[in-house]
Amino acid sequence: MKLSYKIVFYSALILLVYLVVRIIIWQYEEYNERRGYCSAEGKFLTEKEKLQNLRADLVVQDLEEWSQNTDRNEFSRILISKYDLSDKEKIINIMEKSNINKSFKENFGIIAIGTISEYIDRRSCLREPSRCYDFSKLHHSLRSLWKNDNTVDIKYLKNLDKNYSIIINGEGSQSFMASISPLSSIIKTGKNNYQISYYSIYKFCCDRESIKEKTGITNLSNKKKTAEQIQLDYKEISLLHLDQIDGRSRDGIYIVDLFQNLTLSKPELVQKYGLFWSVGSLRSSSYPVVRNITATACGTIVEN
């Protein structure tokens, strides 16, 4: 047999052996998965351990996915609140008592943050040390969800209190929205199936920067209103109380319509817009929204 033929033959044989071994490993891992054995940690996990991993993976998946497309997600961020925000009325109470001169982080008890802008800076630092700076001062007293090697701090996330909440702040038109997922709302619905609730609010309610950016802007729409109707709307807003916003006759859509074509001339008016809209939405029958999750035996989320 020619040497070249021998090389091809043995190469094919090695590849075949490798594939057979991989198939055996995959079948073994699937068998372990079916019987609830976590191969990655080499043991059967308790339900508490699985939930710890699941809570961490809720954050890890988003941060790692965003980091794969930094141009599109440069301003995306995840915040960890020390509050249990599973009760809609508690969220409303926090919004109502928020200080108009404080940040969203201060008003909502944020203790940790993970941003893609920090990921980008840390990546540049690792590639070129001259571009490094003191990352500990980036978010003031808040803990970063990124480690020095620019990987997600999974150990910290696994030890999050079950009564904390995850808050996601997105890009572009979603930058004024905050999506709240209370960790205490996670419930098991099947062998490897879970549910988590989430709510969306306008940051205008409770964030000085968002309020400042919106102040002085007319809330334009295609719907035309007469000067008389606009004056009536301003009057209605001044007389409207939170207990009147029931999420049925007065819901988020009602609030949007009420504020259409009005100039948000003062920060207090912007705050009312964010507060009223958020309350109208929270009290509607559409909240909370439920997300269904399938998890592995290790408690990590299975992509749907």
- Indicate the percent of residues in helices: 40-55%
Please tell me what the overall shape is: elongated
Q: Quote the distance from N terminus to C terminus.
A: 50 Å
* Whole-number count of domains: 3
Poorly predicted parts: none
Mean pLDDT score: 86
State the total count of DSSP E strands: 10
Please report the number of helical segments.
11
The succession of helices and strands, N to C, reads HEEHHEHHEHEHEEEEHHHHE
Structural class: alpha+beta
Strand content: 15-25%
Backbone CA Rg: 25 Å
Sheet with the most strands, sense and barrel status: 8 strands, mixed
Oligomeric grouping of the chains: single chain
Description:
The protein is α+β, with helices and mostly antiparallel strands and 304 residues long. It folds into three domains: 3-35; 45-208, no CATH class; 209-282, no CATH class. The protein has eleven helices and ten strands. It has helices spanning 3-34, 47-67, 70-73, 88-96, 104-107, 116-127, 154-158, 208-214, 227-239, 252-259, 267-282; strands at 37-38, 43-44, 77-81, 110-115, 143-144, 165-169, 177-182, 187-188, 193-202, 289-294. The strands form two sheets. Strands 3, 4, 5, 6, 7, 8, 9 and 10 form an eight-stranded mixed sheet that branches. Strands 1-2 form a two-stranded antiparallel ribbon. A hairpin with a 4-residue loop joins β8 (187-188) and β9. The protein is elongated and about 90 Å long. The model has no long low-confidence stretch (mean pLDDT 86).
